[in-house]
Amino acid sequence: MLVAAEWLYGTAFFSYLVTSILYIAGVTGKKIKIENGTAASNKWTRVGYWVAIFAVAVQLAGFLARWIGGGHAPVSNMFEYMSFWAWAIMLAFVVISAFYHFPILGAFAAPTALAVLGYANVFPDVNMSLIPALKSYWLYIHVTTAALGEGVLTIAFAAALMHLLVITEVNMPDKRSKWLEFVLFLFITLIGFVFISLMYKVQGYHVSDPVTGNVYKLPPVIGSTGTDVGSLATLFGIPLPLFNVPSWMTWGKAPIRLNTLLLTFVVSIILYLVLRLLNRKPLVRTVSAWVKGLDAPSLDELSYRAIAIGYPIFTLGAIVFAMIWAQEAWGSYWSWDPKETWALITWLYYTLYLHLRLQRGWEGERASWLAVAGFVVILFLLVGVNFLIVGLHAYA
Amino acid sequence: MTTVVRRRRTLTTWLWDFFASIKVAIVIIALIAISAVIGTILPQENFIPSLNPGAYYPQTYGTFGEIYYTLGFSHMYTSWWFVSLMLLLGISLIICSLERVVPLYKSLQRQQIKPALSVIQRKEIYVPAAGADETAVDKLIEELTRRKYKVRREGTSFMAERMRISRFGAYILHIGLIIIILGALSRLIPGWYVSKNIWVEEGQTVSVTGSEFFVRNDDFIVEFYDDGRPKHFETKAVIIDGGQETVKQSIIVNSPLKYKGFMLFQANYLPPMLRTLDLELTEKDSKQTLGKFTMDFSNMQTEYKAGEYTVRALDYFPDFVFGNDGPTTRSTDPNNPVLLIQVEGPGIEKPLKQWFFPLNQMVLEQESKYELVPFGGRMVETTGLRVQKDNGIPIVYGGSVVVLAGLVLVFYFQHKRIWGQLHDGVLHVGAHTSKNWFGMRKDMEKIFQSVGMPVEVSLNKRGKK
Q: Which of A275, B48, B111, B295 is the most buried (most CB within 10 A)?
């Protein structure tokens, strides 16, 4: 069963990739007609939509196979959880596309889901038996509902980004287009991180630091205080680490994390520069050409609708069900654990969005920027908290 | 006198207006979110492995840790200003809601059945159906009633309404939030909230904090996976209330024991610890047994009788370690007990001091002719139970249900209104909805279809999508 699951997950990954390529090919080709602000679908996007449905079905089958094979619902470690979130994004895209006819949405939603699924694969995909705190059906209910809410909110991000690309005059070198270019760069950062992590993971790379016992899974450019410079490894013949962190940053895994961040940025900047050179103009101009002519208010409305649908689901899954589970497992429905606190922060963030939009008239551009930044908040809730902060959720 | 009254009135109205402002509410929410973010930068005091946060933060996180601790960020969520922000949010929720819900209620109560025709004609959805008569009005009303609209009629005019309550969804949601805040605050009521960790050794009976009953630990089981991660914790617990064994239940993680409003959670455990040791006093050379006795480490004596002999305990180190200044103990738990003893009895003129290592057989040349040989004993495990009583839980859960109901009403339902008036054979029908204009348009088309008056419904320019 577990072998079948692995195979199905692999197929799903491939289908995400195909969906993304089909949609991007569909929007970059000149064949999409935009009339009265709505885009007609073309051959590419129609096939893309069917592949997206296939991807959702295949990953669901993989999920069930892993559940049967592993004896528990596969939502208990980072690989499983991130895969599920990617699936939720894809599912939300498929469902929302059935109601709102925006084939171009796929060119944004599918690559996002693909990046998240890629990120999931950075983590070990071993099926681990559960520690006692996780043996509860509330785990499944809480985690799946929360991920569905986050999936729908991610669609709000994609639509908001499209809206901004439509309304921003990208040929003007002003602040707005620079910020949009920065958003694209951040997306490349995510890809860059997934890229180097997977590259070294495939090689089984690891270097341990004899002083601190820290294990590096990427070349150790930065060492801990006390490690001899140049004593750990070499990269292209350069002895590593190049330098050490100051002593106040040596606690826990801080040097490893700083090292990962640094490498991610270096790789992302190289990746960005290569793309930028190939493109010979800011990336934002190319991407905004995909959406040119779309009806801006409809995209704004779509983004808002996605938040209006996702917010109650998120409340139910990430706050209410989380409280019930915390009560059963830890004996207190609220303990200000960092993950819990960040779920509340995310909830407060979207609460602010809704009040600003519905009560203070923040529609259009400002609302879209809020929705785009909301994706960063969700990313921090799901990734940043685990990466930078440890707490009761440390196992997740 | 009058000036004083007026000043007070002014202050009250000022405060009211302040809290009724959405801007203020938004600022309060933002401040709570920002404070919550700051509180997650470093672990909070209740998550650190130290009892002395004042020393822990600077030691572990350097200058930044020291500043963090000094500013009180290390206990953010119990700090007076965070709690104050929560209270301000509660006040803002109540006043903002009252300020808006009352006018909304009144305006919905005062709706006219028969507004001016021009009002209907300006609705976002407007259909003039020609060639209609009073029977058409009857049929339309019948159809609307069938579709669960509430219809009020005045001659040949009517007004139909559905899901008016969805307009109140936001306020229902706010009431739910206030209930949750009250539920959380109910912990302050004396006797409503207990949270305490208790340790219960196997075989021991311990009073449950804050209650009148006791809990006994019959057995504690811990299992591990091969890779060392924990697999299973279980305490076979018995509740003793008024001298009677009232409940017998296994407490495992995620499945607490519930009794009389109290909950006992499996929270912790201590590894097996030496409880008693059965010892034999023997003469080294002849291997002859001189006497036997049992040493209870929870109840240490200064002397033990072994047959005709006496074993005197001169010094006792429960958790022996060899420190800088000689032998010392790390804790009071008998993890590595070591005793300094001397044996007295018939034929011993000058008793000699000697070390006794019950657990690790230290080979130490000692002059004494006697030795203590363990031949049995008992290890016990200790379970850590969390005693929790929180009468506010049902209130918090109830509030959550209200919040969710409010959310569903706000976001998944819509308030629909349809007005109709017959003028000179033309039935003027206008419709309004709080959202989803597309759905409303389809609804109207279906309604007209059912009464045999197919029309095409389009949106006026003012109508949104």
A: B295
CB contact under 8 A, A132 and B252: yes
CA dist., res. A220 & res. B316, Å (int): 50
- CB within 8 Å of chain B, chain A residues 265-304: 297-298, 301
**Looking at the partner chain, which of A128, A248, A348 has a beta carbon nearest the beta carbon of B29?**
A348
Q: Is B391 on the interface with A (CB under 8 A)?
A: no
pLDDT tens-digit profile of B399-417? Answer: 999 999 999 999 999 899 9
Burial B86-97 (b: 16+ CB within 10 A, else e): bebbbebbbbbb
**Residue B65 to chain A, least CA–CA distance (Å):** 10
3-state secondary structure of B115: coil
**Neighbouring C-alpha atoms within 13 Å toward the C-beta of A146:** 27
| Cβ of residue B388 closer than 8 Å to a chain A Cβ | yes
State the nearest Cα–Cα gap between A312 and chain B, in angstroms.
6
Cβ–Cβ gap A329/B32 under 8 Å: no
B77 to A154, A283, B86: CA distances (angstroms): 29, 43, 10
Q: What is the rounded distance in angstroms from the CA atom of residue B423 to the CA atom of residue B136?
A: 12
Interface check for B383 against chain A (CB to CB < 8 A): the answer is no
Specify the DSSP element, H or E, that contains A329: helix A321-330
Residues in contact with A274: Cβ distance below 8 Å, sequence separation at least 6, in sequence order: none
Q: How far apart are CA A154 and CA A109, in angstroms?
A: 8
Nearest CA of chain A to the CA of B412: how many Å? Answer: 8
Q: Give the span between the Cα atoms of B300 and B279, in whole angstroms.
A: 14
Per-residue pLDDT of chain A (396 residues; tens, 9 = 90+): 778 888 898 899 999 999 998 888 887 765 556 665 566 667 888 888 999 999 999 999 999 999 998 888 888 888 899 999 999 999 999 999 888 777 888 889 999 999 999 988 888 877 777 777 777 888 889 999 999 999 999 999 999 999 999 888 878 778 888 899 999 999 999 888 888 888 888 888 878 777 777 778 888 888 777 777 777 777 777 777 777 776 666 666 777 778 888 888 899 999 999 999 998 888 888 888 888 778 888 889 889 999 999 999 999 999 999 999 988 888 889 988 888 999 999 999 999 999 999 888 888 899 999 999 999 999 989 888 877 765 444 443
**CA distance, residue B230 to nearest chain A CA (Å):** 6
Q: Check CB contact under 8 Å for A132 and B233.
A: yes
- The DSSP line for A100-113 is S--GGGHHHHHHHH
Q: Is B397 on the interface with A (CB under 8 A)?
A: yes
Task: Report which of residues A42 and B9 the model is more confident about.
Answer: A42
Residue B252 forms contact with A (CB below 8 Å): yes
Residues of A in contact with B403 (CB under 8 A): 315, 320
For chain B, give every domain's residue range: 11-105, 188-273+383-390, 274-374
The nearest alpha carbon in chain B to A135 belongs to B254
With beta carbons less than 8 A apart as the criterion, state whether B178 and B186 touch.
no
Type of residue found at A67: W
Bridge-based pairing of strands B309-317 and B303-306 is antiparallel
Structure confidence at residue B1 (pLDDT): 43
Distance of CA B198 to the CA centre of its chain: 19
Of A301, A344, A356, the CB nearest to B36: A344
Q: What is the pLDDT of residue B2?
A: 47
B-facing residues of A in 341-370 (CB < 8 A) are 341-342, 344-345, 348-349, 351-352, 355-356, 359-360
Share of chain B above pLDDT 90, in %: 26
pTM for the predicted model, two decimal places = 0.84
Partners of residue A348 in chain B, C-beta under 8 Å: 29-30, 32-33, 36
